[in-house]
Structures are given as structure tokens and as C-alpha cells.
């Protein structure tokens, strides 16, 4: 029952609907239903947010350490340093997402260009 | 109950005008940053072997980017449907409190519940941030029209972005391809850090980023769930203990 399990054209779409749409909209609908009945700072919500955040962070970590495609050809150290410097710049300069993106990309592109020149 | 909801004295032109203003509100700094994130998503989807039609379909019907990135991660890992659904569901619980916070703003006496359920699909970080900031300037009766314009144009614009970037991603030089694939992690690292409400979420990010790759080596296929539950649980406990003995 994986994404590529069946050859039929509709299977991937059904997979996305079940594992993607249903799995996200169910929480949105629950939010509409609960309306103003739940407090935003309740302990349960703090725990739930922590679990959800750690899960997405795990995906981020995997995308950096075990990337696919062209990014996999960049050395692990360069990938980590790019993200780290981007993140530090983000923290230092007013927590602007755009600053983090620009710095991380500049370090990666600069690093890859230097490697290209040396080989 | 009130049939005159159809014969609204404000009339359709007014609703249309506020729908249009919602569309205009989507043109913003968070909106532009979101587009850059979808540029990254298109590259990621291509690398994962997802077709362009499937990637555009995903953009419209899942919408929340963290959920889609987890879904792509599950597809790449070869997870089964139930395992993928569980991981996506766990990553999306955060949508509930966001919708809970937004609904009192969108609700009006004339509004039908169905409208709110349909509109809730547009809720993801960016449209939510813009809406929470600007919805108070919109007359209450017009707020659902306004949010339709805002959410709808963000979804449609990014479906186009995904189709476009997917088409050109294959012909990029290797260095730009690598840069494209770095967009998703750096975007999420910074935007999630900024949207965290409490220290628990910051601890959770640090633990998750370390545990994710670690569990990828130990238990591939189950790495996201393991890192999410152990990292998130530990972050919550650390948060509780550092808050002191305030056992309310």
C-alpha cells in the first residue's frame, strides 16, 4: 500500500486524498467544530504542538542530512554550515525568514562554486 | 431559519468587492515568502518521483506545507498508506488551534456553518497569519468573502508556481538545483522557529532535527514517528520542569 504500489493512474491521487487531505482537513474541521470551546494555551495543546513541531523538525533534519538529487552531491559539512549560518543570520537580524533563506543559499552556492573551481 | 440570507441587503457586488480585497491582501511579504517555499516544494516533489499533476493536486488538496513535506518524506521512504496518514495527521494537529483561534473572527449571525467548514481548508500558516492581522478591518458580514479571496488566491497562485517550477527544475544547472532543494529546510527552520508560542516548541525543533536523521539510520520508515514522539515528549517534559514546580 505504498505510493507506488499499484500501476493504476488514480492510486497516487487516492493516496494523497487519504494520507494528505483527510489527514489535514480532519484537524481543520475539528477546529471549526470546537470553535471557542478550547483554550489556546491549555497544557494539552502545548504537548500536541511540541509533538507536531518535533515531527516536522525531523523531516527538516532528514532533508539536510539525507537529501536527494543535486543537494546530495554537496558535502554534508557544507549543507550543515549553510543552514546553521542562515539560521544564525535569521536570529541576529530581526528574525526575518527572508534573511535566513538568502544567507543559507548564498553560503551553499558560494561553497559549491569554490568546490567546482578546485576540481 | 433565515431565508433572507440569500436576499442579503448588502448584495453580491459588496461581497465581490471584499473578495477582491482579500485577493489583494494575499500580495504581501508573507505571501512572497510562501511562494519561495513552494518553489522549494516543487523541486522536492520532482526529486521524490511525484508527477507534476500529482504535485499540483497535492498543493490544492492538502495545502498546509509541513503536511505536504511530511507526505513527500513518507512517499520517498516508501511508507504504507496508514503509516503516511498517521505521520501527516500528527504533523497537522497544529491546524486545530489555529482554526479555533480564527473562527470567532469569521463567524457572523447570517453565516452558514458549511461555509466555515469549506473555508477552513484554506487555513495554513501564511493565510492564517495574514488573516489574524487584518481581519479586524473587514466588516463582519464580509469576512467570509474576504477570507475566500485571500485563501483562494494563495492556493491558486501556488498551484501555478508548483506547475511552473516543476517544469523548469529539470533544466537547472546542478548548483541551482542544489539551492532549490535547500529552500525547504531553511524556510521551515526559520518560519517554524518564529511561529513557536512557547519554549517547548523550540526544544522540540532541536530534538527533532537531531533525532530525525538518527532514527533514519536506526529505524528507517518509522523515523518520523519515533523522532516526533520521543523528541516532542522530551521537549514537553523539559519545558514543564524548567517552568518550575507550577503543577497547576
Automatic annotation (TrEMBL), chain A:
<dbReference type="Pfam" id="PF05437">
    <property type="entry name" value="AzlD"/>
</dbReference>
<keyword id="KW-0472">Membrane</keyword>
<feature type="transmembrane region" description="Helical">
    <location>
        <begin position="96"/>
        <end position="115"/>
    </location>
</feature>
<keyword id="KW-1133">Transmembrane helix</keyword>
<feature type="transmembrane region" description="Helical">
    <location>
        <begin position="12"/>
        <end position="34"/>
    </location>
</feature>
<feature type="transmembrane region" description="Helical">
    <location>
        <begin position="72"/>
        <end position="91"/>
    </location>
</feature>
<feature type="transmembrane region" description="Helical">
    <location>
        <begin position="46"/>
        <end position="66"/>
    </location>
</feature>
<keyword id="KW-0812">Transmembrane</keyword>
<dbReference type="InterPro" id="IPR008407">
    <property type="entry name" value="Brnchd-chn_aa_trnsp_AzlD"/>
</dbReference>
<protein>
    <submittedName>
        <fullName>AzlD domain-containing protein</fullName>
    </submittedName>
</protein>
